[in-house]
Amino acid sequence: MSAAELDQAVQLLVRQVGHWQQPRWAAAATTGNMSRADLVHRLVQEIANLAADAEGEPRRVVPRLDNDLALPDQVRVVVADLITAGPGAEVLARAAAEVTATRSAL
Question: Which string of DSSP letters, residue by residue, matches 44-78?
């Protein structure tokens, strides 16, 4: 797995949700017992954890912003942080799998 492949997965997710308004974010995800916004925020936290691990830094809680419309940008930022940390192919693959699974669950 390469950084370009992870970036492609993120672009697909952002294209899917980037135009959503609040009611779509508040709707239930197809899996689990949570809203679409909660599901995407969980993805943001997972990617942030992978980035912290790759940097050798402590994991930190990513704040849940008041406006769900910011979630696509949060995904982009944490993925950029992960790629900048230079993790191995297995970490990139895990991140891409998380992005793809989240897309499918929306």
Answer: HHHHHHHHHHHHT----PPP--S-GGGHHHHHHHH
Using DSSP, state whether 15 is helix, strand or coil: helix
Rounded average pLDDT over 66-83 = 96
| Cβ–Cβ < 8 Å for 36, 27 | yes
Give CA–CA dist 51/59, Å, rounded: 9
Burial class, 65, CB count within 10 angstroms (exposed 0-12 / middle 13-18 / buried 19+)? middle
For the chain, the structural domain boundaries read: 3-105
The phi, psi pair for 21, rounded to 5°, reads: -100, 175
d(CA 52, CA 5): 20
pTM of the model: 0.94
Q: How many CB atoms lie within 10 A of CB 1?
A: 17
Region of 42 (left: φ > 0; alpha: ψ -120 to 50; beta: rest) is alpha
